[in-house]
Amino acid sequence: MDNTQTRYNFIDLFAGAGGLSEGFLQAGFNPVAHVEMNKFAAKTLETRSAYYYLKSTDSLAIYKKYMSGKITREEFMKQIPASIIKTIINQTMSDDTLPALFKKIDGIMKIRGITKIDVIVGGPPCQAYSLVGRAQSSHMEVPMSEDPRNYLYKLYARFLKHYQPRMFVFENVTGIESANGGTTWKNIKKYLRRVGYEIECREQNASTFGVLQNRRRMIVIGWLKQSGLEYPKFLQINHYAVVNDLFTDLPKLHPGEGADKYTKVKPSSYVTSTGIRTSGDVLTLHNCRPNIDRDIKIYKRAIELWNDDHQRLKYDDLPEELKTHKNRHSFTDRFKVVEGDEQCCHTILAHLSKDGHYFIHPDIEQHRSITVREAARIQSFPDSYFFEGPRTSQFVQIGNAVPPMMAQGIAMGIIEQLHKGDSNGS
Known about the structure:
- By secondary structure, the protein is α/β, with parallel strands linked by helices.
- The chain is built from 14 helices and 7 strands.
- Strand 1, helix 1 and strand 2 (30-36) form a beta-alpha-beta unit.
């Protein structure tokens, strides 16, 4: 997956667990800084940066010790130079914090002899733009239209103004264009153009980048005015895998169980060819939630319906003794099986942190919800990617992430445009 022939510099804003970054790193970009407010996601970014440092110094044995639980995180981080860790900035972005953030990143650039930023990537938290978020806003104390997250693009624009990268990638949910009656999107375009950029917004689906997931996102890309650049053409990846190919080499589990060793079953060609699993990987985060008997009975019904006839379980069709929700009319598909025998499953969501009913493993013998590692594989994260924090946070980090394989495809398209700019002298 690596392509280190080019070393364009990038900054990742609202970085989350680093899905976008991972794709840009795999494409050969050089990370200058990641800015992320959540402490667990920031720790995940530190761990991943440590992984890349140890890989570059041929010292991955230290990383494997940490993955295997042989050394503590504190012992592990002592092996990593402070200059690597300092590139992860655990800070909330606001009008007040921006001057200090610029100073910190400018300092990193000076120490490393970096004179320019080529690309800024990132997507402001998207609940305020999402269609689901808006549907729920009537029950909230603050209306969605007044949510302060609607205006985080202004901070993004100030980064563009300060660093003047040749291009930027602004990832968001499909509802961004219609949020707030379309006013928010109009303002975003106005702000980004005001700081010197042409922009274009297109819907992309992770499945066309080779990810085994139907995940639609708006990818906004901008380039400096008069640079001769344009929205990249992304390479479409065709494969013949199905979602079950992600699970074949992972131990079978029952509710509440976990495992830290791969099975002896040969991993599918999909997980090896994509680099999701490589030789020497240590299996982590393959532990599943415990489930009460009632949920297990419901899971089995849902799996049977899906595997036998591709039917979805409707909540209202359950026997009365299995129903606990008073609401029988909305969210009738609250129990949903991952489509193991299809090329794409439904979108992995941060809601996984609350319960796993919407992401039931397709194997009726296991009758459980998916593990953190299985969710990460569906999102195309490599098995070497470790998510810090409690399981609830790990699920949120994965559900909110851009799939790295999709991010790598975007990064390769950006490289082509930058190369074009280099040859034109722009």
